[in-house]
Structure formats: C-alpha cells, structure tokens
Design goal:
By secondary structure, this protein is an alpha/beta fold. Helices cover about 35% and strands about 20% of the residues. The strands form 5 sheets. A 7-stranded parallel sheet has the order 3-2-1-4-5-6-11, with helices on both faces.
C-alpha cells in the first residue's frame, strides 16, 4: 500500500513509519523541511520525502495522488495560544481538500479525549479538527488518547524532571485532575492495527490505559519506579500563569508548551469504554509498566524520537534548518581556533558527543551559568540535553543549540544558537587537511549585540581555547 504520513518528523510519526515499512508499505512523507527529514530517513527504503506545508495549499500539489491511506498527525499545540486553533483548522481543511482529489480510502487521525463538558482551547481544537477532516470521499478513523507515556514524550520528560529534581513539591491544584495515561507502544499498536480495517471506517474511539490516576498519583508512582521518596502538597492559590512559570523553571519544557499544558491539565481526561481493545487485540499496559519500559529504552540509548527535537522546544526556529546553513560573513564577529589533528577518530567521537551529559569539554561551570541566565530570560537553557549520547542529526536539539548540519564522514558539525541573544550565533566544528577548525560566529543586532560580544570576549578566550584543546587530546 501507498501510505501518506503527515508529521513524519514528529514524536509519533518517527515511531510509526518503521512499523509501516516493516509491513512492506511505501510511505510518502510530506515535510516542511526536506533536508532535515533526509537525515532521519536517508537509509530507509520505500520512504518518499516531499516538501510540502499543509498551511500552504499550493505546496500540496507536489504530493502524489495514488495514495491508499493516510495518517493525520499534525498538531500545533505549542504555537501561540491565540492562533494555534486557527492553524490546526487550516491544516485540516487543506489536507481534506487535497485528500478529496486522491484515491485515499482511509484517514487515521490521532486526537485527544474530549469528553469533559469544559474543554481547553487545545482539546476543543482537536475536536474541531475531527469535524473538519470528516469526508464523504474517504473513511475517517479517529483515536482519542489522553496522556501519552514513553521515552522522549513531553509528559514523560516533564514528570521525570519534577520527580528527579524536587524531593518535595508545593504544587497547583490541577495535580488532583484525573486522567488515563496510555503507553506510547499501545498508541502505536492502535494506529498500526487500524490500517485498512473496514469495521473501523467512519468510527471514533477513546484509547486509554487501564487505570484512572491523578497527576499527583502519576508523580508518586513515577517516584516509586525510580526508588525515590517524594512529598507533594497541592494548593489552590496558583494561577494558570504562575503554574506555567513553575513548570517552565523546573522542567525542560518551553513556556509556551507549559502554558498549553496547564490550560489542558485542569480538564479531566477520562475515556469512554468501547470494544476497540477487543477488536484490535490490544491489552494496554499500566502506567508503571509504561514508565519502566521507557527507562529500558533510555538505558539502551534507543530513543527514536523526542519532543525536545521539535522546533517548539525553543520557539526560535520555525520550519527550516537549512535557512541557517550558510553562516554569514558580513557584519559578524568570529572566534576562530585551529589545531593540528592528533587523532581523527577520537576527535570526531568527542565532537559528536558534545553537550548533554558529556558537557562542553571546558568551563562547565560557566556553561551552566550561561544556561541559567538563558532560562531566566525565557530561553531553553541547558535543560533539553540531547536525544542520544553519540548520534546527531540535522534538526536535533543540543542543549541551547540546534543541529543545522551533521556529517561525520565529512567531519563537519554546525550548530545554531537558540539561546536568548542580541543577535544570531553559530558554532562550527570541521576536520580538514589534518586540522581541527572551530569557529564561533556572532551576527549582532544593533549596539546591544556589539556590547554583548565585547563583554563575553574574555570568557570566550578561555572557553573556546580549552574546548578545542580537550577535543584534540
């Protein structure tokens, strides 16, 4: 079958596509940034990448029409709270108009549980998208999930940050809200097994785990899995804005995502029982089992996708990493270092392991201070770390940097700064002609940018010299 998968570089899409490929299907992936997606799927046969943006109806002409089924996995949760519902509805409308011109027989849509009488803007938007996608041309299958638990998921990482960083918590009252968390493995099973299943055409099902838990209970059970003792007191005085700041400063989430989550977490996410588990032969695992499975993946360094690699984890980049691949020359300050190579393989391995748990090879304390200041002023800080300790792909988050280009065979790594800066910054590592070349480039915005560069120059001298020397050891 020819299967269209939207959101191919997203958290769900990157995990679903290998399952479809294993079944022998051909997968067509419309992506906004083809160069970014190529780093994920360059070794995958039967994957066709097409550059298209569902916010731009004209760009959809590049997508083939001979498609048998499609997965709709587009969400705009972390865009501006004032406009994300408009963007989601526009994407759904453009998708439907495109799909009506193709041979698509089934569209499978992953939504959120919307049974509460008072829905957040986020959940109400998901409901509107379902209504928009309904068509007489193709059959729509909708799965509505609650909290998704898995290595790299936003909910898992936020709970992990809270539990592992705070021995005691004075928390907002929405921690008493009830929900039914579902393991990412079970979500993928529902999506995978529903393909071409005619009895699911034009149906909608809630999918959820076997337990009804409050967010507080989830935190405490997470602590039990990690063998940690935690105390949580909920108070009714935290406003949504204060709650958002609480999540932002304690966890690795961006403020926009924290705000969206807080608005949704006051809504009970309880699914309606149905026969879908029996129809597809799925027995969802418990919350503790999902957490334990997630940590097995983390220990094996086999996290396929992470929400942190989404552009919304910083909010600075929007769609295209390749727009930043040509480092500017005019009007820029540069810090250039060069060392004669001692051991190429060793140096490459160090460069590809930079950041995250490894650190930046010199001045760790200074990097932490810079990360704290960045977070204080609304940036990503160092909290995002990295998805894998030794692998890097274009588009990956790397502390407060974004990977723009990564080719180990060519010996080049280019990073773009997503920290709060009065300008733009790039950091490049290149191995060429038996030398290591390390270049930090800063394009200032106005007099403030120039003053910033001169103020940090003394630190750069120590940090960048120490970094390249330790990489070359």
């Amino acid at each position: 079958m020819n299967i269209l998968v939207t959101g191919a570089t997203g958290y769900i899409g990157k995990r679903l596509i290998p399952l479809l490929l294993n079944d022998g299907h051909k997968v067509i992936c419309p992506v906004r940034d083809k160069k970014r997606a190529q780093s994920y799927y360059k070794d995958k046969k039967n994957v066709v990448l097409v550059e298209a943006d569902f916010l731009n109806a004209h760009s959809l002409k590049a997508i083939p029409n001979n498609i048998d089924a499609a997965y709709y996995l587009i969400h705009s949760m972390s865009n501006s709270a004032k406009e994300f519902h408009v963007l989601e509805e526009k994407c759904a409308f453009n998708f439907k108009r495109f799909a009506n011109r193709t041979s698509i027989k089934q569209v499978i849509y992953l939504s959120g549980i919307t049974n509460d009488t008072k829905l957040s803007k986020h959940l109400l938007s998901r409901k509107n998208v379902e209504n928009t996608l309904a068509s007489e041309h193709y059959a729509l299958t909708t799965f509505k999930a609650g909290i998704i638990v898995g290595s790299g998921s936003s909910s898992f990482e936020i709970i992990r940050d809270l539990v592992e960083k705070l021995p005691a918590m004075i928390a907002p009252k929405w921690l008493d809200t009830k929900t039914q968390p579902l393991a990412i493995r079970d979500v993928l099973s529902f999506l995978h097994k529903a393909l071409a299943k005619k009895e699911l055409y034009n149906t909608s099902y809630d999918i959820f785990g076997p337990e009804v838990l409050t967010y507080k209970t989830m935190l405490l059970q997470f602590a039990e899995v990690r063998k940690l003792k935690r105390w949580i007191i909920t108070v009714p005085v935290m406003t949504p804005k204060l709650s958002s700041y609480w999540l932002y400063f304690v966890t690795s989430t961006s403020y926009k995502l924290a705000s969206s989550l807080v608005n949704s977490m006051g809504v009970e996410v309880i699914g309606k029982k149905s026969s879908i588990n029996q129809i597809l032969g799925i027995n969802p695992m418990t919350y503790k089992e999902a957490v334990q499975l997630a940590f097995k993946k983390i220990e094996q360094n086999s996290i396929i996708s992470s929400w942190k690699d989404s552009y919304i984890s910083s909010g600075k980049l929007k769609n295209y990493v390749h727009e930043f691949i040509n480092v500017p020359e005019y009007g820029c300050f540069k810090d250039y270092k060069k060392r004669k190579l001692k051991n190429k393989e060793n140096a490459l391995n160090k460069i590809w392991a930079i950041g995250g748990e490894t650190g930046w090879y010199y001045g760790t304390f200074l990097w932490k201070i810079r990360g704290f200041l960045d977070q204080f002023f609304g940036g990503a800080g160092l909290r995002r770390g990295r998805r894998h300790p030794t692998e890097l792909n274009a588009g990956d988050a790397l502390d407060f940097w974004r990977v723009i280009y990564a080719d180990k065979e060519k010996g080049k790594l280019l990073l773009y700064a997503e920290m709060i800066l009065p300008g733009e910054a790039w950091l490049e590592f290149k191995i060429k002609d038996n030398f290591i070349h390390q270049t930090a480039t800063f394009r200032p915005h106005g007099i403030g940018g120039r003053l910033y560069w001169y103020s940090v120059m003394p630190f750069h001298w120590f940090v960048f010299n120490g970094m390249i020397n330790n990489i070359n050891k």
